[in-house]
Amino acid sequence: MRFKDRTQAGQFLAKELAAYANRPDTLVLGIPRGGVPVAFEIAKTLNTPLDIFVVRKLGVPDQRELAMGAIASGGVRVLNEDIVRSLHISEVEIDQVTEKEQQELERREHLYRGDRPFPQLHEQTVILVDDGLATGATMRASVVALQKYKPAKTVIAVPVSALETRDEFAAKVDEIICGLTPSPFYSVGLWYEDFPQTTDEEVRNLLDRAANRELLMANG
Question: Where do the coiled-coil regions begin and end (predicted)?
Fold first, then answer.
């Protein structure tokens, strides 16, 4: 089995998440960029608000692929203290990397969300959505950052995941909904027939459409 595209994947997950439909304490957060088209379909079907959770990994100086922490929407920063200590990374170095990534995070926040305020996450049921999990590095940072807001419940929803990655997150969050766990896994994109890179413009358009839908519903 493969998904036709991110839209179909989101529609599939929405059926699996039917228990969360029409609940005022629930919202869907898409991880940009690829998670947003999936999240849009889920939010539309469940009749819940849609927003984004932007995460930027903090790479070790001179080893950018190795994450020493992450920053996320709403001003959250988390650090992997074991890596920081073992590599003797100074506060100055951490601050320099953080400042650079914060600029990119703010650029994306402004580009995607515009003037809309950051959503209320405390004591809410949050459905965190991406288009797939391979190593799970971005989702791992997202979950750690999200917990800082003390949501009532954290749910991960992904169309496809490596089996060991899914099992890891099953122990970290309240619930994980995953469509496929193929083995061998290879890559996320392999399990979609159509898997183009999601553009900034597409993310903005989907968020605008979701906001307009929510406004119409609020006005009756």
Answer: none
Domain assignment present for 159:
yes
Query: Residue 143, Cα to own-chain centre: how many angstroms?
Result: 8
pLDDT of 122-157, one tens digit each?
A: 999 999 999 999 888 788 889 988 998 999 999 999
> CA-CA-CA-CA torsion for 101, 86, 142, 158, nearest 10 degrees?
120
Q: Give the contacts of 141 (CB within 8 A, at least 6 positions apart).
A: 55, 57, 67, 69, 70, 72, 78
Residue 130 domain flag: yes
For residues 54 and 209, what is the distance between their CA atoms, to the nearest angstrom? 19
**43 alpha carbon, distance to own chain's centre:** 14
The residue written with tokens 């898409």 in the block is: 30
Reduced to 3 states, what is the DSSP secondary structure of residue 151? coil
Count of structural domains within the chain: 1
Q: Looking at the DSSP assignment, which residues form a beta bridge with residue 91?
A: none
User: Given the structure tokens 């009749």, which residue do they identify?
Assistant: 47
- Pairs from 94-97 (Cβ < 8 Å, separation ≥ 24): 94/58, 94/68, 94/69, 96/61, 97/58, 97/59, 97/61, 97/68
**61 part of a folded domain:** no
Q: How far apart are CA 7 and CA 27, in angstroms?
A: 18
The predicted model scores a pTM of 0.89
